[in-house]
What we know:
The protein is mainly α and 244 residues long. 45% of the residues lie in helices and 11% in strands. The strands form 3 sheets. It has a 3-stranded parallel β-sheet, sandwiched between helices. 23% of the residues are buried.
Amino acid sequence: xxxxxxxxxxxxxxxxxxxxxxxxxxxxxxxxxxxxxxxxxxxxxxxxxxxxxxxxxxxxxxxxxxxxxxxxxxxxxxxxxxxxxxxxxxxxxxxxxxxxxxxxxxxxxxxxxxxxxxxxxxxxxxxxxxxxxxxxxxxxxxxxxxxxxxxxxxxxxxxxxxxxxxxxxxxxxxxxxxxxxxxxxxxxxxxxxxxxxxxxxxxxxxxxxxxxxxxxxxxxxxxxxxxxxxxxxxxxxxxxxxxx
Length: 244
C-alpha cells in the first residue's frame, strides 16, 4: 500500500493505489502480469472507469513493468468480442483453438461452483481452498445465519470487504464479537437485480447495482439486525450509491 501511494496520482481511489502496489511487488518476479481492461461485465452496464484505465495507468506510471496481458473484458453490447479476446489470451499458452475453448469451459464450471460456495456464506479464500483441494466432503449449509448472535450485512465492493488489510479485517473482527456476517455475495444475482430494479431509474454501474439491490433485500429481511456500508475514499460511483 505504501508503494502504491507513492506511485499513484492523488485522485485515484484507495483500491487502485493498493493495486498499483501489488503490481510493483510483482515487478522483477514474473514474465507476464494478467491485467485485463475491465470495461463491462453485463449488458448495458459499466464497471468503474478506473478499472477500464488501470492497465494504462500501470504502463504510464511504473518503469520496467513486465509485459501486460491486458485483454479487453467488455460485455456491454450483445455482440461483444469477448470470445475473440479470450482466444487472444489463450494463444499465449496454446495454439489449439479446441484446447482454448475447453479451458474456458472448465474455468466457467469452476466459477459457477465458486459462486455457489459464496452463496453459502463461505468466504472467498476458504472457497478457493475448498476448490483447490477438490473437497468432496463439503456439504450445503442449512442456513447462512449461523450462531445465536446478531446478523449484520456488510455492503460494499468485494475488493474492499474481503481484503483483510484494506478493510482492517472487518469480517474477522465482527465474528470475534459473535456476530454473523453476510454480504451481497450470499445472494443470487437475480434477487439483487430484482431489488435494484425497484429504483425509478436503472443504475448503469454494475457494482452500484449490487450494493443497492443487496441493501434493499437485507432491509426487508427480518433476520438481519443491521447493515454496515464500506466505501473507499475517492470512489466516484459510491458517492452516488452511498447516498441512495
